[in-house]
Amino acid sequence: MLIENKQVVVVGMGRSGVAAARFLVRRGARVTVTDRAPADSLKAAIDALGGLDIRFKLGGHDAGDFERADLVVLSPGVPHTLPMLEPAWVKGTPVIGELELAAGFIAEPILAVTGTNGKTTTTELVGHMLGNSGKRVFVGGNIGTPLIAYADGAYPRADVVVVETSSFQLDTTIDFRPDTAVMLNITDDHLDRYSTFSAYAESKWRIFNNQRPADSAVLNAMDATVAAMIKKHPPVARRQLFSDQAVVNGAQIFKDRILVFDGGRQSGCFSLDKTGLLGPHNRENMAAACLACLGQGATVAGIQQAIDEFQGLAHRLETVGRVGGVRFVNDSKATNVDAVKRALSCFDTPVVLIMGGQNKKGDFTGLKSPVRRHVKTLVAMGEARDEIVTALAGDPEKGIIEATSMEEAVEKAFDAAVAGDTVLLSPACASFDMFDNYGQRGDRFREIVERLG
Length: 453
Prior knowledge:
453 residues; alpha/beta; Rossmann fold; UDP-N-acetylmuramoyl-L-alanine:D-glutamate ligase; Protein-Tyrosine Phosphatase, Chain A; 9-stranded mixed beta sheet; 6-stranded mixed beta sheet; 17 helices; tetrahydrofolylpolyglutamate synthase activity; cell division; Mur-like_cat_sf; EC 6.3.2.9; Folylpolyglutamate_synth_CS
């Protein structure tokens, strides 16, 4: 991609927007950075771009910038369907994201992971498996470090570039082609941004658009939407399926092991006896990671070491304390209904569930069955509190309690629990009604639990 002397508009001054702007200026582009937020709320981002020849348009957007642009680069949080982009669309100006921009400047193999749930855990696990196998690895993307930072030379050269990709990032891809693409699952999420679930699924499936027959597509054969999309848009890459049923090419998942098959013949076996990752959903994540890493030259020993030693990530089924025989588990990253289903399936003992936050147009009635099976008492909080109560009334064994803050929710959950129970924060909602992000929400939960002890 030729960008020298091009007029480029970068929309959004989040982490990826700042990194993209820096990259473009260093390669001779004439860059305008625009954000609807006012300058006084963007001081850190502005300071990060200090000394660079950049024009700022803050506190709103100027249609003229998009009319004059040769290229528009969107941050992931900026929907690609916004009316302000119409001048660029009409002119035929490419509108891409930081992921697409970065990939055009990366020669190393890219291993990309997407899915509604499990992306970050799987991406980190892949990094450990490859690193344990002696590979030099960069891990980034939606997980935190923008891919453009790697393309800009901010990190050492890698043998494999591992990138977590969100639907928002995939929306603005054109030529993005991962050598290995992983699809973990597709379930209801982000319906506050997409007009239909089908539109969201199509967005996810873009990860396979440019793959070639020699590339690898790792897919969850147990996920109904993934199975339907395989029939609708068959990937041209070599398909490897993971499932709890027999497979010809891919991985079969058992409670205590993962068997790998190539052409119907077993070619590998990985023990799950020592894994610290809980639940059937994490067995799926491990199977996907095994297949992806084997395709990139990981060793059996390196993969097994990662399975044995990887302890998971913060805010994902993270035990944060035990008080009076009650276990407290932080699953703040569970921001949709399917993630809560997966979390509840991990527990054999009674659960006091804390749910709520900002609904992303999720259907809470989808939790009726798992709540009946696993939840003793449900504590509802946040903007979605009334919706949760309406959807799940009568389903928890001992009913629903309402709370107006995290402190009140934890205290009421503890009061409802007895020794041997688990208090689980698994919100099924975004955090933005009460917190800046899911991490802050989980940290607050942990702080309150520590005070209880």
